[in-house]
Amino acid sequence: MLEVAEQSGVTLIHENEKDIYGDTGDRCLDLAVNLPALGHCFDFSNFVQCDEDTLECWNKLRDYVVYFDVKDAIAGSGVVVGASVVAPYGGEVVGLLSTAVHARLTVPTLRGMHFAYPTFHRVVERALRDTGL
Predict the structure, then answer these.
(1) Is the pLDDT at 109 greater than 90, yes or no?
(2) Is the pTM of this model over 0.70?
(3) Contact (CB, 8 A) for 89 and 82
(4) How far apart are CA 38 and CA 85, in angstroms?
């Protein structure tokens, strides 16, 4: 899959999601070293939820990170607080769609959400209209 993506000019990205292989700094580093074509999304909150030290993880992974999912979590509580996404090249759009997919939001629901402006109304709305959704 990585080879096909790379040939197509696409970078596949792994996020250090809780409860998967690649949830800790060491496991992410293993993926980064052994799958160099794979980009990495650094999610602070997911590291906190895995009882990882985010600064230590950053120091291990900084050379492999191409995307950030910026939110926080209260250590030991399972509570995630705040969220936004920072990324080069269209982070607003990717972040909004990522949020929508994770939350399983419908297009009509997404259209009415306040945080969707200006991203949704400026870019995603046009794309959905062009595809007939």
Answers:
(1) no
(2) no
(3) no
(4) 19
